[in-house]
Amino acid sequence: MKTIKEPERNIPVAFTADLCVIGGSCTGVFAAVRAARMGAKVAIVENNGFFGGVATAGLVTIWHSAFDMARRQQIVAGLSLEVIDRLKKRNAVKVLDPAAGQHCAYVFNPEELKIDLDELIAESGIRPFLHARFVDVIHDHGQVAAVIVEDKTGRRAIEARYFIDATGDGDLIVRMGLPFTKYDELQPPTTVAMVDNYKEIIRQNPSFDLSGAIHDPKYPGALQRGFAWGTEVVGRPESYMIAGSRSHNADCSDGDSLTAAEMECRRQVRTICDILRQAPGGAQISLANIATHIGVRETRHAKCLYTLCERDILHGTQFEDAIGYGTYGVDIHHSNKAGITMKYLDGTQRYSEPGKQCVWSRWRDESASKTPYYQIPYRSMVPESASNVLVAGRLVGADKYAYGAIRVMMNCNQTGEAAGVACCVAMSGRHRVSEVPIDQLRARLREGGSVCLTVEESAEHAVAGYGSQARQT
User: Fold this and answer.
1) Which CATH number does 13-184+373-462 carry?
2) Which of 63, 256, 341, 473 is such that its CA lies 20 to 30 A from the CA of 146?
Protein backbone atom coordinates (compact mmCIF):
# COMPACT_ATOMS: atom_id res chain seq x y z
CA MET A 1 0.00 0.00 0.00
CA LYS A 2 1.29 3.44 -0.89
CA THR A 3 2.03 5.61 2.14
CA ILE A 4 2.78 9.23 2.97
CA LYS A 5 4.71 10.58 5.92
CA GLU A 6 2.80 12.77 8.36
CA PRO A 7 4.90 15.61 9.77
CA GLU A 8 5.65 15.47 13.49
CA ARG A 9 3.65 17.95 15.53
CA ASN A 10 2.79 18.91 19.09
CA ILE A 11 -0.75 18.05 20.20
CA PRO A 12 -2.45 20.47 22.62
CA VAL A 13 -3.99 18.88 25.72
CA ALA A 14 -7.67 19.82 25.78
CA PHE A 15 -8.49 18.26 29.15
CA THR A 16 -6.91 16.33 31.99
CA ALA A 17 -9.23 13.90 33.77
CA ASP A 18 -9.31 11.07 36.24
CA LEU A 19 -11.29 8.98 33.76
CA CYS A 20 -11.83 9.24 30.01
CA VAL A 21 -14.62 7.22 28.37
CA ILE A 22 -14.34 6.57 24.64
CA GLY A 23 -17.82 6.07 23.19
CA GLY A 24 -20.98 7.90 24.21
CA SER A 25 -23.61 5.20 23.92
CA CYS A 26 -25.77 4.65 27.00
CA THR A 27 -23.04 2.23 28.09
CA GLY A 28 -20.42 4.98 27.92
CA VAL A 29 -22.65 7.66 29.43
CA PHE A 30 -23.57 5.41 32.37
CA ALA A 31 -19.88 4.64 32.96
CA ALA A 32 -19.06 8.35 33.00
CA VAL A 33 -22.00 9.31 35.23
CA ARG A 34 -21.34 6.64 37.84
CA ALA A 35 -17.68 7.67 38.07
CA ALA A 36 -18.55 11.37 38.27
CA ARG A 37 -21.05 10.72 41.06
CA MET A 38 -18.21 9.09 42.99
CA GLY A 39 -16.18 12.29 42.71
CA ALA A 40 -14.08 11.56 39.63
CA LYS A 41 -13.22 14.20 37.04
CA VAL A 42 -14.53 12.64 33.84
CA ALA A 43 -14.36 13.25 30.09
CA ILE A 44 -16.42 11.43 27.45
CA VAL A 45 -15.78 11.28 23.69
CA GLU A 46 -18.58 10.66 21.18
CA ASN A 47 -18.48 10.72 17.38
CA ASN A 48 -22.11 11.82 16.98
CA GLY A 49 -23.57 15.15 18.00
CA PHE A 50 -25.60 13.45 20.72
CA PHE A 51 -25.31 10.54 23.14
CA GLY A 52 -27.10 7.20 23.21
CA GLY A 53 -25.50 5.10 20.47
CA VAL A 54 -27.75 2.34 19.19
CA ALA A 55 -30.67 3.61 21.32
CA THR A 56 -30.68 7.01 19.61
CA ALA A 57 -28.47 7.08 16.49
CA GLY A 58 -29.49 3.50 15.72
CA LEU A 59 -33.22 3.94 16.55
CA VAL A 60 -33.33 0.63 18.44
CA THR A 61 -35.88 1.85 20.95
CA ILE A 62 -36.30 -1.14 23.25
CA TRP A 63 -34.62 -2.23 26.49
CA HIS A 64 -35.34 -5.71 27.73
CA SER A 65 -36.52 -7.01 31.09
CA ALA A 66 -35.22 -5.83 34.46
CA PHE A 67 -36.61 -8.96 36.17
CA ASP A 68 -35.77 -12.64 36.36
CA MET A 69 -37.55 -15.23 34.24
CA ALA A 70 -40.28 -15.67 36.87
CA ARG A 71 -40.80 -11.89 36.97
CA ARG A 72 -40.41 -12.01 40.75
CA GLN A 73 -36.85 -10.85 41.38
CA GLN A 74 -35.57 -7.50 40.09
CA ILE A 75 -32.13 -8.09 38.61
CA VAL A 76 -31.43 -4.70 36.96
CA ALA A 77 -31.68 -1.25 38.51
CA GLY A 78 -29.20 1.64 38.49
CA LEU A 79 -29.12 4.19 35.70
CA SER A 80 -31.21 2.13 33.28
CA LEU A 81 -34.27 2.45 35.49
CA GLU A 82 -33.36 5.99 36.52
CA VAL A 83 -33.49 7.01 32.86
CA ILE A 84 -36.76 5.14 32.38
CA ASP A 85 -38.21 7.10 35.30
CA ARG A 86 -37.06 10.33 33.64
CA LEU A 87 -38.73 9.32 30.38
CA LYS A 88 -41.97 8.50 32.22
CA LYS A 89 -42.29 12.15 33.24
CA ARG A 90 -42.78 13.05 29.57
CA ASN A 91 -44.84 10.02 28.56
CA ALA A 92 -41.83 8.93 26.53
CA VAL A 93 -41.66 5.28 27.62
CA LYS A 94 -44.06 2.36 27.69
CA VAL A 95 -43.72 -0.91 29.59
CA LEU A 96 -44.81 -3.83 27.44
CA ASP A 97 -47.08 -6.31 29.16
CA PRO A 98 -46.02 -9.98 29.05
CA ALA A 99 -49.54 -10.99 30.10
CA ALA A 100 -50.73 -9.69 26.73
CA GLY A 101 -48.29 -11.93 24.90
CA GLN A 102 -45.66 -9.21 24.51
CA HIS A 103 -42.02 -9.25 25.51
CA CYS A 104 -41.39 -7.86 28.98
CA ALA A 105 -39.51 -4.74 27.97
CA TYR A 106 -39.38 -0.95 27.89
CA VAL A 107 -40.08 0.90 24.62
CA PHE A 108 -39.03 4.55 24.55
CA ASN A 109 -38.87 7.71 22.46
CA PRO A 110 -35.25 8.12 21.25
CA GLU A 111 -35.48 11.89 20.84
CA GLU A 112 -36.45 12.40 24.46
CA LEU A 113 -33.67 10.01 25.49
CA LYS A 114 -31.09 12.20 23.74
CA ILE A 115 -32.06 15.14 25.94
CA ASP A 116 -32.15 13.07 29.13
CA LEU A 117 -28.62 11.84 28.46
CA ASP A 118 -27.48 15.44 27.87
CA GLU A 119 -28.97 16.36 31.23
CA LEU A 120 -27.24 13.45 32.98
CA ILE A 121 -23.89 14.55 31.54
CA ALA A 122 -24.42 18.19 32.51
CA GLU A 123 -25.75 17.44 36.01
CA SER A 124 -22.75 15.21 36.70
CA GLY A 125 -20.19 17.83 35.69
CA ILE A 126 -18.72 15.64 32.95
CA ARG A 127 -16.64 17.23 30.17
CA PRO A 128 -18.28 16.15 26.88
CA PHE A 129 -16.54 16.00 23.51
CA LEU A 130 -19.23 15.65 20.81
CA HIS A 131 -18.55 15.41 17.08
CA ALA A 132 -15.18 14.06 18.20
CA ARG A 133 -13.54 10.95 16.78
CA PHE A 134 -10.97 8.99 18.73
CA VAL A 135 -7.96 8.51 16.44
CA ASP A 136 -4.92 7.47 18.47
CA VAL A 137 -3.55 6.58 21.88
CA ILE A 138 -0.39 7.37 23.81
CA HIS A 139 0.51 4.28 25.82
CA ASP A 140 3.29 2.10 27.13
CA HIS A 141 2.96 -1.60 28.04
CA GLY A 142 -0.79 -1.51 28.68
CA GLN A 143 -0.68 1.83 30.50
CA VAL A 144 -2.47 4.63 28.64
CA ALA A 145 -1.38 8.21 29.27
CA ALA A 146 -3.62 10.03 26.79
CA VAL A 147 -5.92 9.62 23.81
CA ILE A 148 -5.95 11.74 20.68
CA VAL A 149 -9.23 12.97 19.20
CA GLU A 150 -10.14 14.97 16.12
CA ASP A 151 -13.02 17.44 16.22
CA LYS A 152 -13.94 20.83 14.75
CA THR A 153 -11.19 22.46 16.79
CA GLY A 154 -8.56 20.12 15.36
CA ARG A 155 -6.35 17.39 16.77
CA ARG A 156 -6.36 17.41 20.57
CA ALA A 157 -5.30 15.19 23.46
CA ILE A 158 -7.15 14.11 26.60
CA GLU A 159 -5.04 12.92 29.52
CA ALA A 160 -6.46 10.66 32.23
CA ARG A 161 -5.53 8.16 34.90
CA TYR A 162 -7.96 5.50 33.66
CA PHE A 163 -9.79 4.82 30.40
CA ILE A 164 -12.87 2.87 29.30
CA ASP A 165 -13.27 1.52 25.78
CA ALA A 166 -17.02 1.73 25.12
CA THR A 167 -16.66 1.98 21.35
CA GLY A 168 -18.22 -1.43 20.71
CA ASP A 169 -15.59 -2.19 18.06
CA GLY A 170 -12.60 -1.99 20.40
CA ASP A 171 -11.06 1.06 18.75
CA LEU A 172 -8.98 1.92 21.81
CA ILE A 173 -7.67 -1.56 22.64
CA VAL A 174 -6.84 -2.25 18.99
CA ARG A 175 -4.70 0.88 18.73
CA MET A 176 -3.00 -0.18 21.96
CA GLY A 177 -2.17 -3.53 20.42
CA LEU A 178 -4.16 -5.48 23.01
CA PRO A 179 -5.47 -8.89 21.87
CA PHE A 180 -8.96 -9.42 20.48
CA THR A 181 -10.99 -12.08 18.68
CA LYS A 182 -13.07 -11.75 15.54
CA TYR A 183 -15.18 -14.77 14.60
CA ASP A 184 -15.47 -16.00 11.02
CA GLU A 185 -19.23 -15.47 10.82
CA LEU A 186 -20.26 -12.11 12.23
CA GLN A 187 -23.90 -11.37 13.00
CA PRO A 188 -25.01 -8.99 10.22
CA PRO A 189 -25.75 -5.31 10.91
CA THR A 190 -29.14 -3.65 10.40
CA THR A 191 -30.23 -0.11 9.64
CA VAL A 192 -33.46 0.65 11.48
CA ALA A 193 -36.15 2.89 10.01
CA MET A 194 -39.39 4.44 11.23
CA VAL A 195 -42.33 4.52 8.86
CA ASP A 196 -45.61 6.38 9.14
CA ASN A 197 -49.07 4.95 8.40
CA TYR A 198 -47.96 1.34 8.92
CA LYS A 199 -50.84 0.73 11.32
CA GLU A 200 -53.35 1.02 8.47
CA ILE A 201 -51.87 -2.19 7.08
CA ILE A 202 -52.48 -3.87 10.44
CA ARG A 203 -56.00 -2.49 10.66
CA GLN A 204 -56.89 -4.09 7.34
CA ASN A 205 -54.95 -7.30 8.01
CA PRO A 206 -54.33 -7.95 11.73
CA SER A 207 -52.27 -11.07 10.93
CA PHE A 208 -49.95 -9.26 8.50
CA ASP A 209 -46.49 -10.88 8.54
CA LEU A 210 -43.92 -8.07 8.18
CA SER A 211 -40.90 -10.36 7.90
CA GLY A 212 -42.63 -12.71 5.50
CA ALA A 213 -43.80 -9.88 3.25
CA ILE A 214 -40.47 -8.11 2.77
CA HIS A 215 -38.73 -11.43 2.06
CA ASP A 216 -41.44 -12.71 -0.30
CA PRO A 217 -39.79 -13.44 -3.69
CA LYS A 218 -42.95 -12.38 -5.53
CA TYR A 219 -41.84 -8.78 -4.97
CA PRO A 220 -39.02 -7.39 -7.15
CA GLY A 221 -35.92 -6.87 -5.05
CA ALA A 222 -37.32 -8.70 -2.03
CA LEU A 223 -34.79 -9.06 0.77
CA GLN A 224 -32.92 -12.35 1.14
CA ARG A 225 -31.61 -14.43 4.06
CA GLY A 226 -32.85 -12.02 6.67
CA PHE A 227 -35.40 -11.48 9.40
CA ALA A 228 -37.51 -8.48 10.39
CA TRP A 229 -39.12 -7.26 13.57
CA GLY A 230 -40.59 -4.00 14.77
CA THR A 231 -42.34 -2.12 17.53
CA GLU A 232 -44.42 0.97 18.11
CA VAL A 233 -42.82 4.40 18.49
CA VAL A 234 -43.75 5.98 21.81
CA GLY A 235 -45.32 9.41 21.32
CA ARG A 236 -45.93 8.89 17.60
CA PRO A 237 -49.10 6.77 17.27
CA GLU A 238 -48.93 6.34 13.50
CA SER A 239 -45.21 5.49 13.38
CA TYR A 240 -43.65 2.05 13.51
CA MET A 241 -40.01 1.08 13.99
CA ILE A 242 -38.81 -1.60 11.54
CA ALA A 243 -35.55 -3.52 11.81
CA GLY A 244 -35.49 -5.52 8.59
CA SER A 245 -32.46 -4.60 6.49
CA ARG A 246 -29.20 -6.46 6.83
CA SER A 247 -25.81 -6.48 5.16
CA HIS A 248 -24.42 -10.01 5.03
CA ASN A 249 -20.69 -10.61 5.38
CA ALA A 250 -20.12 -7.05 6.54
CA ASP A 251 -17.33 -6.27 8.99
CA CYS A 252 -18.21 -2.87 10.41
CA SER A 253 -14.82 -2.54 12.13
CA ASP A 254 -13.39 -2.05 8.62
CA GLY A 255 -13.96 1.40 7.13
CA ASP A 256 -14.69 0.27 3.58
CA SER A 257 -16.98 -2.55 4.70
CA LEU A 258 -18.85 -0.16 7.02
CA THR A 259 -19.38 2.32 4.18
CA ALA A 260 -20.75 -0.39 1.90
CA ALA A 261 -23.02 -1.76 4.65
CA GLU A 262 -24.49 1.68 5.43
CA MET A 263 -25.41 2.27 1.79
CA GLU A 264 -26.69 -1.26 1.18
CA CYS A 265 -28.97 -1.20 4.22
CA ARG A 266 -30.41 2.19 3.27
CA ARG A 267 -31.15 0.74 -0.17
CA GLN A 268 -32.97 -2.13 1.53
CA VAL A 269 -34.97 0.29 3.69
CA ARG A 270 -36.34 1.86 0.52
CA THR A 271 -37.17 -1.61 -0.82
CA ILE A 272 -39.03 -2.41 2.42
CA CYS A 273 -41.13 0.74 2.06
CA ASP A 274 -41.85 -0.01 -1.60
CA ILE A 275 -43.06 -3.51 -0.71
CA LEU A 276 -45.22 -2.24 2.16
CA ARG A 277 -46.91 0.23 -0.20
CA GLN A 278 -48.19 -2.73 -2.21
CA ALA A 279 -49.90 -4.30 0.80
CA PRO A 280 -53.61 -3.59 1.45
CA GLY A 281 -53.71 -0.34 3.41
CA GLY A 282 -50.09 0.50 2.60
CA ALA A 283 -50.56 3.15 -0.08
CA GLN A 284 -49.74 5.98 2.33
CA ILE A 285 -46.61 4.42 3.81
CA SER A 286 -43.91 7.07 4.18
CA LEU A 287 -40.34 6.89 5.46
CA ALA A 288 -40.24 9.12 8.55
CA ASN A 289 -36.77 8.45 10.00
CA ILE A 290 -33.74 6.41 9.12
CA ALA A 291 -30.98 5.60 11.59
CA THR A 292 -28.00 7.95 11.44
CA HIS A 293 -25.73 4.99 12.17
CA ILE A 294 -26.13 1.38 11.14
CA GLY A 295 -26.93 -0.98 14.02
CA VAL A 296 -23.79 -3.07 14.40
CA ARG A 297 -24.42 -6.43 16.04
CA GLU A 298 -20.90 -7.82 16.13
CA THR A 299 -17.29 -7.05 15.25
CA ARG A 300 -14.36 -7.53 17.63
CA HIS A 301 -14.38 -9.22 21.03
CA ALA A 302 -11.75 -8.18 23.58
CA LYS A 303 -9.62 -10.97 25.00
CA CYS A 304 -10.23 -10.54 28.69
CA LEU A 305 -9.26 -12.33 31.89
CA TYR A 306 -12.42 -14.41 31.50
CA THR A 307 -14.34 -15.36 28.36
CA LEU A 308 -18.03 -15.79 29.07
CA CYS A 309 -19.32 -18.92 27.31
CA GLU A 310 -22.71 -20.21 26.23
CA ARG A 311 -22.86 -22.66 29.12
CA ASP A 312 -22.42 -19.78 31.58
CA ILE A 313 -25.46 -18.10 30.05
CA LEU A 314 -27.80 -21.03 29.63
CA HIS A 315 -26.95 -22.72 32.94
CA GLY A 316 -26.61 -19.54 35.01
CA THR A 317 -23.01 -19.92 36.21
CA GLN A 318 -22.57 -18.03 39.48
CA PHE A 319 -19.63 -15.65 39.73
CA GLU A 320 -18.28 -14.09 42.91
CA ASP A 321 -17.36 -11.04 40.82
CA ALA A 322 -20.79 -10.72 39.13
CA ILE A 323 -21.55 -7.10 38.18
CA GLY A 324 -24.57 -7.60 35.92
CA TYR A 325 -27.52 -9.91 35.29
CA GLY A 326 -29.77 -10.75 32.35
CA THR A 327 -32.50 -12.98 30.95
CA TYR A 328 -32.30 -12.21 27.23
CA GLY A 329 -31.63 -15.51 25.45
CA VAL A 330 -28.87 -16.56 23.08
CA ASP A 331 -29.96 -14.72 19.93
CA ILE A 332 -28.06 -15.54 16.73
CA HIS A 333 -28.84 -13.59 13.57
CA HIS A 334 -27.38 -15.86 10.93
CA SER A 335 -25.01 -14.66 8.26
CA ASN A 336 -24.98 -17.89 6.25
CA LYS A 337 -28.71 -18.66 6.14
CA ALA A 338 -32.08 -17.01 6.62
CA GLY A 339 -33.65 -16.12 9.94
CA ILE A 340 -32.56 -16.26 13.55
CA THR A 341 -32.09 -18.90 16.23
CA MET A 342 -33.06 -18.11 19.82
CA LYS A 343 -32.20 -20.25 22.85
CA TYR A 344 -34.20 -19.46 25.98
CA LEU A 345 -33.20 -20.03 29.58
CA ASP A 346 -36.16 -22.38 30.13
CA GLY A 347 -34.58 -24.99 27.84
CA THR A 348 -36.53 -24.24 24.66
CA GLN A 349 -35.25 -22.87 21.40
CA ARG A 350 -36.80 -21.69 18.16
CA TYR A 351 -35.66 -21.10 14.63
CA SER A 352 -37.55 -18.32 12.86
CA GLU A 353 -37.38 -17.98 9.07
CA PRO A 354 -39.36 -15.33 7.17
CA GLY A 355 -42.64 -16.58 5.73
CA LYS A 356 -42.46 -19.93 7.53
CA GLN A 357 -43.79 -21.25 10.80
CA CYS A 358 -41.35 -21.10 13.72
CA VAL A 359 -39.65 -24.40 14.53
CA TRP A 360 -39.58 -25.09 18.27
CA SER A 361 -37.35 -27.64 19.95
CA ARG A 362 -35.40 -28.10 23.19
CA TRP A 363 -31.72 -27.63 23.85
CA ARG A 364 -32.02 -29.49 27.16
CA ASP A 365 -34.41 -31.92 28.82
CA GLU A 366 -37.66 -30.44 30.11
CA SER A 367 -37.12 -31.96 33.56
CA ALA A 368 -33.81 -30.13 34.04
CA SER A 369 -33.64 -27.19 36.42
CA LYS A 370 -34.41 -23.82 34.87
CA THR A 371 -32.07 -20.85 34.95
CA PRO A 372 -33.80 -17.72 36.35
CA TYR A 373 -31.09 -15.35 35.03
CA TYR A 374 -27.42 -15.32 34.11
CA GLN A 375 -24.51 -13.27 35.43
CA ILE A 376 -21.77 -11.16 33.84
CA PRO A 377 -18.45 -11.26 35.74
CA TYR A 378 -16.11 -8.29 36.16
CA ARG A 379 -13.22 -10.36 34.79
CA SER A 380 -14.89 -10.38 31.36
CA MET A 381 -14.34 -6.59 31.22
CA VAL A 382 -10.61 -6.63 32.03
CA PRO A 383 -8.48 -6.89 28.86
CA GLU A 384 -5.43 -9.08 28.98
CA SER A 385 -2.23 -7.04 29.63
CA ALA A 386 -4.19 -3.86 30.43
CA SER A 387 -3.10 -1.69 33.34
CA ASN A 388 -5.58 1.19 33.38
CA VAL A 389 -8.12 0.29 30.66
CA LEU A 390 -11.47 -1.51 30.92
CA VAL A 391 -13.92 -2.48 28.20
CA ALA A 392 -17.70 -2.17 28.44
CA GLY A 393 -20.75 -2.88 26.29
CA ARG A 394 -20.70 -5.38 23.47
CA LEU A 395 -16.90 -5.50 23.58
CA VAL A 396 -16.71 -7.64 26.74
CA GLY A 397 -15.02 -11.02 26.54
CA ALA A 398 -17.50 -13.66 25.35
CA ASP A 399 -17.73 -16.53 22.90
CA LYS A 400 -20.05 -16.02 19.94
CA TYR A 401 -22.99 -17.73 21.64
CA ALA A 402 -22.77 -16.02 25.03
CA TYR A 403 -22.31 -12.81 23.10
CA GLY A 404 -25.66 -13.40 21.39
CA ALA A 405 -27.28 -12.94 24.81
CA ILE A 406 -25.27 -10.22 26.52
CA ARG A 407 -25.04 -7.80 23.57
CA VAL A 408 -28.49 -6.25 24.17
CA MET A 409 -28.57 -2.77 25.69
CA MET A 410 -29.97 -3.56 29.14
CA ASN A 411 -26.98 -5.85 29.67
CA CYS A 412 -24.48 -3.44 28.14
CA ASN A 413 -25.76 -0.63 30.37
CA GLN A 414 -24.80 -2.62 33.45
CA THR A 415 -21.26 -3.19 32.22
CA GLY A 416 -20.91 0.55 31.67
CA GLU A 417 -21.90 1.34 35.24
CA ALA A 418 -19.59 -1.37 36.56
CA ALA A 419 -16.66 -0.05 34.53
CA GLY A 420 -17.12 3.49 35.83
CA VAL A 421 -17.33 2.34 39.43
CA ALA A 422 -14.38 -0.07 39.01
CA CYS A 423 -12.15 2.72 37.74
CA CYS A 424 -12.98 4.83 40.79
CA VAL A 425 -12.24 1.94 43.15
CA ALA A 426 -8.96 1.37 41.31
CA MET A 427 -8.03 5.05 41.63
CA SER A 428 -8.67 5.11 45.35
CA GLY A 429 -6.28 2.21 45.93
CA ARG A 430 -3.88 2.90 43.05
CA HIS A 431 -4.74 -0.51 41.64
CA ARG A 432 -4.34 -1.98 38.19
CA VAL A 433 -7.74 -2.80 36.74
CA SER A 434 -7.02 -6.50 37.27
CA GLU A 435 -6.42 -5.89 40.99
CA VAL A 436 -9.69 -4.11 41.86
CA PRO A 437 -11.02 -5.54 45.16
CA ILE A 438 -14.27 -7.23 44.14
CA ASP A 439 -15.97 -6.77 47.51
CA GLN A 440 -15.37 -3.01 47.27
CA LEU A 441 -16.54 -2.88 43.67
CA ARG A 442 -19.78 -4.68 44.39
CA ALA A 443 -20.39 -2.65 47.55
CA ARG A 444 -19.98 0.64 45.67
CA LEU A 445 -22.25 -0.60 42.88
CA ARG A 446 -24.97 -1.35 45.44
CA GLU A 447 -24.48 2.05 47.08
CA GLY A 448 -25.07 3.69 43.69
CA GLY A 449 -28.32 1.81 43.09
CA SER A 450 -27.18 -1.26 41.12
CA VAL A 451 -28.33 -4.80 41.84
CA CYS A 452 -25.52 -7.00 43.19
CA LEU A 453 -26.87 -10.27 44.52
CA THR A 454 -24.91 -12.45 46.92
CA VAL A 455 -23.94 -15.98 45.90
CA GLU A 456 -26.45 -17.25 48.46
CA GLU A 457 -29.26 -15.14 46.99
CA SER A 458 -28.41 -16.33 43.50
CA ALA A 459 -28.45 -19.96 44.62
CA GLU A 460 -31.85 -19.46 46.28
CA HIS A 461 -33.33 -17.99 43.11
CA ALA A 462 -31.84 -20.77 40.99
CA VAL A 463 -33.89 -23.44 42.74
CA ALA A 464 -37.12 -21.42 42.96
CA GLY A 465 -38.22 -22.36 39.43
CA TYR A 466 -40.77 -20.70 37.15
CA GLY A 467 -43.46 -21.63 34.67
CA SER A 468 -43.02 -21.98 30.93
CA GLN A 469 -45.03 -18.81 30.35
CA ALA A 470 -42.09 -16.84 31.70
CA ARG A 471 -40.33 -17.35 28.37
CA GLN A 472 -41.82 -14.05 27.28
CA THR A 473 -39.19 -12.19 29.32
Assistant:
1) 3.50.50.60
2) 256
